[in-house]
What we know:
Two copies of one chain form a homodimer.
Chain A: H1 10-15, H2 17-30, H3 37-46, H4 53-63, H5 71-94, E1 98-99, E2 102-103, H6 105-132, H7 135-157, H8 165-191, H9 198-219, H10 225-228, H11 234-237, H12 243-251, H13 254-265, H14 271-283, H15 286-305, H16 312-326
Antiparallel strand pairs in A: 1-2
Helix pairs in contact in A: 2-5, 3-6, 4-5, 4-8, 5-6, 5-7, 5-8, 7-8, 8-9, 9-15, 9-16, 12-15, 15-16
GO molecular function, one term (chains A, B): metal ion binding
GO biological process, one term (chains A, B): isoprenoid biosynthetic process
Keywords (chains A, B): Magnesium, Metal-binding, Transferase
Amino acid sequence: MAPVPTSSIDRLVESVADRMAEVNALIASHAGSDVTMIPEVADHLISSGGKRIRPMLTLATARLFDYRGDGDVKLATAVEYMHTATLLHDDVVDDSAMRRGKPAARMIWGNQASVLVGDFLLGQAFKLMVDVGSLEALDVFSSAAATISEGEVRQLAGAKNLSVGEDHYMAVIDAKTAALFAAATAAGPIIARAASYRAPLESYGRNLGLAFQLIDDALDFGGDAATLGKNVGDDLREGKATLPVLLAYGRGSAEDRAFWERCIERSEVQDEDVLKARDLVLATGALADTQARAQEFADRALEDLKSVPPAPMRDALAEVVGFAVSRLH
Amino acid sequence: MAPVPTSSIDRLVESVADRMAEVNALIASHAGSDVTMIPEVADHLISSGGKRIRPMLTLATARLFDYRGDGDVKLATAVEYMHTATLLHDDVVDDSAMRRGKPAARMIWGNQASVLVGDFLLGQAFKLMVDVGSLEALDVFSSAAATISEGEVRQLAGAKNLSVGEDHYMAVIDAKTAALFAAATAAGPIIARAASYRAPLESYGRNLGLAFQLIDDALDFGGDAATLGKNVGDDLREGKATLPVLLAYGRGSAEDRAFWERCIERSEVQDEDVLKARDLVLATGALADTQARAQEFADRALEDLKSVPPAPMRDALAEVVGFAVSRLH
Lengths: 329, 329
């Protein structure tokens, strides 16, 4: 048997495959409704080949403490619904045409359906959480829901603005991405009643989420539509002042700064600008520094795991960290 | 002292005024965020003079059983947040320009902010419910959240369609309006641990909500923008096949049916069509029958109240029913 690669989600996938099959069945059944537009819209996105890392993290952190019950499957499903609801609303907010290499739901069913089906999935997520009956888990997820949307509004308020600064950027990704990762990894120890491990695992999730988002934002200047399911330069076209942009802008010549201002603040982006932007984030070291920042959070996530008892599942969680930061290579 | 009118919310307003002051304070404080766009958008709608009937119903149904604690105030605030979130998303879905006599939030801050601030308020609502710690209340409200959005999608799927039928219409208003009224009136007995009164009060709320929505839909052909805060004919312009329309369409001549098909199914509505539509719903008895249907649900709501011990608060709840159906006169 070939050695398991150390920067992969394969071991995570394998070690929760049995529970994940139940999650996938529950995802499909609870997105049902006699209002046919609901399963149509939900299935379009749900079956579009997302990696489902967040629900796997909930299953994995529960199994780490030998959790027995069905709360892990329900909370994992709730996590994926919350994530899907966020994507549906995000695509409306960003006017996105594509999602995971397919037309965004809003391009087929319209913005209205995307808003309302997102709301429906959020409602279903809370019903599943109530079903589990853990007020602590409900607390974590309802706080995450408020934090995620607060982060999205913060991002919207700072859109097309190069003077927002790195703190703003970090606050945005901490809220819109890391909060749900943190809730997903807190859920396991909460339902498994492993209270003393909640803090390190929640911290692991947050740091992993930050590393993930930093690399995602770096990937807007690399990779390609086929592997990413989105187009290189999408963030640029949407006027998102991500970290690579903020760093390159800060380090740029007057001419470079004028270029970024035109692209980000005035939304005048031509196809050739995407290549030029890529050159600039490479030449100024902005991309390398974004990657280094991601590695810092990855290191913190690995440090968090040291507080957790050694187990094959812990190794699987460590490999996810490697996967998060290796995607740029 | 003048006699209390029997079709008014005055007595309800008076009998929960002390607790409502706390609700209003909580509404203002929890809509806060250092992301300034959030309180701006939220306050625009929250301070726009809605009657806040739903939170008052929660306070009243808790006080009916001498509830002591702060759960009533928190759940009442959650109810108003859920309602506000729904309005923000509704305005996006309906492309509405006005809400309560003011420009809709989306006209000032854009659809994106309306979607995201709605999400934020929904998250805050769930946080407040978790704070109260009643899994039964959480169950009622999370189910209502899913039901409301399912009803909105059902309405969207049947928009601009005159063949949907009365059952479709009733299913829509039961979900999009009555479900939250029912949750609001179930919340009181739930937190006051008056378990045997949950069913009749939940039924009271549902029937009251149905009566309310039927009269609202009738008011699209009467009243005026000043008293309603919306323009007469708005539903018509949005292609909504409400009960008065469905009834008038079913009873109309070939020429009348062609008129309705043009207005509702092809969205070709001129200003003079609003007057013609009004004539038709009056002449065919569609408006009177809609009102009669509302009265049926009002009667059922009053019947529900008979299961509740006599008390001044019960009388106040009965007067709200009278208020709901008297608005058309």
